[in-house]
Write a structure and sequence with these properties.
276 residues; three-stranded parallel sheet; alpha/beta; three-stranded antiparallel sheet; binds glutamic acid; 37% helix
Length: 276
């Protein structure tokens, strides 16, 4: 199988050095392996994605010296693929409609005295109540029913695992993720399902992405297993920190590649700086 990896940005802002590092890490790995590098635009959330950010992704990556296969897959153009995957889970009773509002979810999980709130776990509504709510036109999300998934997998549940490149296989425990949303109320699809469907459709053998997404891996391995999709090898790379020591993030207004470029930083200098 040809080594195939991807960089999968969401066009919700301009790329910063951290994103450039991710893209370069994947691109270099593909190059070193004589493999394929794929760029995928994760634009399912139309409320946050903007065409100018997508255009800037192509421009910034080309400036950085990257090349990628075309046509580029834009998730917003492939919703039917995600709906099909959802249907496969639904027909086996592995997904349920969740009518709760964000606030009701927060109330249901409660706030742990220390640290993060526990993951949300729910169950399908009684058919009568579900019918009433559907008839009333109430919006709902589809959630993965972990209890049903566990029952379906039986002993295979405890064997769920993933391979971080160069390491022994490690256990993938999906429980900390909770009953994740498979399809959001507003857009009818959600991140984890779209990613696993696309990684499989695009023949991704190596998922290379930032350490911040390591926690997404166990639940994605579960979805791959339930949907009978191949298991990629993973490489979660370090995250770049800003001057304040915190990791670079779009929402914190990290300096963008266009700003770097405008103040005269060359692509070559940046590529040198962003070595593993
Ligand atoms: N679209 C995701 C992001 O921008 C990356 C998804 C992935 O690499 O699995 O954070």
């Amino acid at each position: 199988m040809t080594f195939t990896t991807r960089f999968a940005p969401s066009p919700t802002g301009y790329l910063h050095r951290g994103n450039a590092f991710s893209a370069l890490t994947a691109f270099r790995a593909a190059h070193a392996a004589g493999g394929r590098f794929i760029l995928r635009i994760e634009d399912i959330d139309a409320t946050r994605c903007r065409p100018q950010y997508e255009a800037a992704i192509y421009e910034d990556l080309a400036w950085l010296g990257l090349t990628w296969e075309t046509p580029v897959r834009r998730q917003s153009e492939h919703l039917a693929d995600y709906h099909l995957a959802l249907a496969r889970l639904r027909e086996r009773g592995l997904a349920y409609r969740c009518f709760r509002t964000r606030r009701e979810i927060l109330e249901a999980i409660g706030q742990a005295p220390h640290g993060l709130p526990p993951p949300f776990r729910g169950a399908p509504l009684a058919p009568g109540e579900e019918q009433t709510r559907l008839a009333a036109g109430e919006a709902f999300a589809w959630r993965l029913h972990l209890d049903a998934a566990r029952a379906e997998l039986g002993p295979a549940w405890d064997r769920l695992s993933f391979v971080e490149e160069g390491e022994e296989a490690q256990r993938a425990d999906p429980l900390p993720a909770g009953d994740i949303v498979l399809a959001r109320k507003d857009i009818g699809v959600a991140y984890h399902l779209a990613v696993v469907v696309d990684d499989a459709l695009q023949g991704i053998t190596h998922v290379i992405r930032g350490e911040d997404l390591r926690e997404a891996t166990p639940i994605q391995r579960l979805l791959q297993t339930l949907l009978d999709l191949p298991a990629p090898t993973y490489r979660h790379h370090r995250l770049l920190a800003g001057p304040d020591g915190r990791r670079l993030a779009k929402r914190d207004k990290a300096e963008t590649l266009r700003e770097l470029r405008a103040r005269g930083v060359s692509a070559e200098a940046l590529r040198l700086e962003l070595t593993v």
